[in-house]
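Box 3.1. Reading complex inputs
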Amino acid sequence: MTMIDVAVSYNRYRFLGREFLTWLWYSLETDPKLAASVDPAIGEIAVGNRMALENRGSAGLETVTIKGDDPGLEEGQTALQKGALVSELSLTFTSGDQRWRFTLKGESLYITGLKVPDTGPVETEADLDGALLEKAALVERAVHLIEGLFYRFIRIRISESWQTEALAGIRKWIGN
Amino acid sequence: MGLMSTSVSVSRFRVEGKLEAPEIETVAKGLKENALSEIEDAAAEKTVGWTPFRSPYRPLFEDRSFVVGEYLVFSLRIDRKSIPSKVLKKEFSEVSARRLAESGRPYLSRSEKKMIREEVAHRLILRIPATPNLYDLVWSLDRQSVWFFSTLKSANEELETLFAKSFRLTLVRLFPFTMADLTAGLSDKERDLLERITPTPFAP
């Protein structure tokens, strides 16, 4: 893939990330086993304290941002009913007694504000190596989960059941 | 925000191409040859290079401490000098007044003013220190993946350029399409389907 192809495909398929985040929100709400299918050690997973939705309709770009510890998700569903898609989604998940938090940007799938469980204290050079490895492994857990969820989405998205099953389910959920 | 910060931002890349064997030595050579040089270009507004994660202000790669377990960990450093506009304005006004007095003319021409501005900027840039910006990177050779701990566009572009120059490998940014196309393990048939997809309306 050349640099030009990369830029072209970024623009041509920029809707994919927003479709993924919208599917993800729906799936988290309706399929309690979703995260465990990617990483069996994951306990709870939920939408965090921030969500943004974008509507790129004929009236131009409209953005709705929902923030707070208990975001009013009905507002998000109302935006979906009007044709918006999720453009930014913060998530939180646990594994054992540890917790991860981060925000996913739809278009780029950049991971921002990633907070992973604390690593051990660093006092010596050897501690630093250990802490680096630990931190990398903790980041890896989040990356692995995001990738696993996305791969699951993309297989459904290109399958024949996308229209008949997934999208039908999402539309029903949006309508409620 | 670096790798060890409490809150980090990550952009991800797929590494395309093959490193010359022995791989670690090739990486070490690329890092050494493209390490940030603090002395070389005192008049440059921007200097870009690699620096060790452990000693970011001492950009020398003297050992293999960038190898941490299965990962390679080092940093991209971008040093920038920017002249505060008010300082530039003050110096320009002083030099202009002096030149005007020397010339005995009532005003300076547009090209004279332009030349003075360039001279002043050049002199100031030599005097002001560069501000170092550090961006950490974690590279997994086995997985052909790079995590870059910044989502800043300019830093990501500098990374892609310097990485290609240093290691003769291409970094492909991972965003939804490239993830689906390159790393999701889709078959050729599935990748054809992927290329043809168009947006679907979700609203009922």
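In summary: The beta strands of chain B are 8-16, 46-52, 67-68, 71-80, 131-140, 145-148, 170-173.
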